[in-house]
Write a structure and sequence with these properties.
The chain is an alpha/beta fold. The protein is globular, with a radius of gyration of 19 Å. The protein has 2 domains: 164 residues, Rossmann fold (3-Layer(aba) Sandwich), CATH 3.40.50.970; 122 residues, 3-Layer(aba) Sandwich (Rossmann fold). 36% of the residues lie in helices and 20% in strands. It has a 7-stranded mixed β-sheet with strand order 3-2-4-5-7-6-12, sandwiched between helices. Strands 9-11-10-13-14 form a 5-stranded mixed β-sheet, with helices on both faces. Strands 1-8 form a two-stranded antiparallel ribbon. It contains 11 helices and 14 strands.
């Protein structure tokens, strides 16, 4: 059963996780593009004032400074909105960070349409595609605040450039008691009739879909694929072979993100893959829940899409 009493955004988990990372390793530093409150950095600033740097509204400089700090042995976390980083500073991520194998953690909040009333310019729907294509970049989209906290601590231990995708809106915590490991997907619900693979806020929506499908006699397997790159090919392939039908669900453009990554894994198999996401559109203004429904990403709309297909299976 889903616990609706604990609603938190994944950015809240990052705020707690980066403090834990800072306590664990004094090399951890944080850089902000004038968005420290939005990224929940107040506790880190209070505890480690000499390890926090306000760069200002200068995302390209943010990445360049972080690359220099990383090459000098620090573990920098750069923080902004996903609509600004990785888009405005993509070339710096490519050359200064990834080409140099600089150990920089790119942490971006307000991803997806659930940014809400801020509108299209602030609703990043292409960021997974932009980062997934960069050589050496790890890409993680936590399902909830609990997973974001664990992911933050774990990426502070690695030496890879990493993109951590966070949300603004609060949703139930669905990963309680579940371990997090980079590159290892979690099977949240076992099933035999079809496989649903989701990341980020869509994991909660898909849990509701799985419960509703089960009530109608359909046993769906749900995979929380928090690490989009490197992707857990084995877990995905094992599930796809077992069920013979795969749906991917993401709060991102339907092309270039999780659905594309899963399709690449299964390209050599004769298993149909249906991708559910934003269909080549920009965002718009509205509440988080209104926008999920408008773009076909609410649990009801996802279930309807799946239902229209499995009738013919």
């Amino acid at each position: 059963m889903i616990d609706y009493s604990d609603l938190r955004a994944s950015r809240d988990g990052f705020g707690r996780g980066v403090v834990k990372a800072g306590l664990r390793d004094e090399r951890v530093v944080v850089l902000s593009a004038d968005l420290s409150e939005s990224l929940k950095l107040e506790d880190f600033k209070r505890r480690f004032p000499n390890r926090f740097f306000e760069v200002g509204v200068a995302e390209q400089n943010l990445a360049g400074v972080a690359a220099g700090l990383a090459l000098e042995g620090k573990i920098p976390f750069i923080t902004s909105f996903a609509s600004f980083s990785p888009s405005i500073n993509w070339n710096q991520l490519r050359v200064s960070i990834c080409y140099n194998k600089a150990n920089v953690k790119i942490v971006s909040s307000h991803a997806g349409v659930t940014t809400g009333e801020d509108g299209a310019t602030h609703q990043a729907l292409e960021d997974i595609a932009l980062t997934r294509v960069l050589p050496g970049m790890v890409v993680i989209a936590p399902a909830d605040a609990l997973e974001a906290e664990k992911a933050t601590v774990e990426i502070s231990k690695t030496k890879n450039p990493t993109y951590l995708r966070l949300s603004r809106a609060g949703f139930p915590q669905v990963t309680k008691g579940i371990n997090f490991k980079i590159g290892r997907a979690s099977v949240l619900k076992e099933g035999v009739d079809l496989t649903i693979i989701a990341c980020g806020n869509m994991v909660f929506q898909c849990l509701k879909v799985v419960e509703e499908l089960e009530n109608s006699g359909v046993k769906a397997e749900l995979i929380n694929n928090h690490t989009v790159k490197p992707i857990d090919s084995k877990t995905i392939l094992d599930s796809a072979v077992k069920t013979g039908l795969v749906f991917t669900v993401e709060e991102h453009q339907v092309s270039g993100g999780l659905g594309s990554a899963v399709s690449e894994v299964l390209s050599g198999e004769r298993i149909p893959v249906y991708r559910i996401g934003v269909e080549d559109k920009f965002g718009t203004s509205g509440s988080a829940l209104e926008l999920l429904d408008f773009y076909g990403l609410s649990s009801n709309k996802i279930r309807q899409k799946i239902g229209s297909i499995i009738r013919y299976k």
